[in-house]
Give the backbone structure.
Amino acid sequence: MSNPDFTHVREGQPTMVDITGKSANRRTALAEARMELGAEIIAKFHGNDLHGPKGPVFQTAIIAGTMAVKKTSELIPFCHPLPVENCEFQIIPNETGVAIRCEVSTTGKTGVEMEAMTGASVAALTIYDMCKAMNKGIRIHDLRLISKTGGKSGDYHA
């Protein structure tokens, strides 16, 4: 007895979704996290990055986010391990902070939404870690899926 509302529950037990019968196709996902950094941090922007005592903040966040994308199945219990074919980040400064966008793609039997959301969130956490000495009140918010393509459920655009 499966529950149609929860794909990761079968016969009342948590489970990985069975993708045995699915065919592989191109799948992409774009996720975003937003951060409010505070005026003292915004004042330290140099071009499109922040440079602090620990090094270039945004470049480090992109590396950390990429590493997280590749390890998503180790962090989220029922995610399938996937061959990540592409992973790209944009960190877009605004008046109060940044928007972090992570786009992931693969050719596979299951989507990359969790990989994109994990990448965006870990990049945000890395920015927090590197900037917390200046402002512990940094806010990470609005982590969301912006779009996904491929798969049985079709395309999604927020």
Q: What stands out?
A: The CA atoms of residues 18 and 118 lie 22 Å apart.
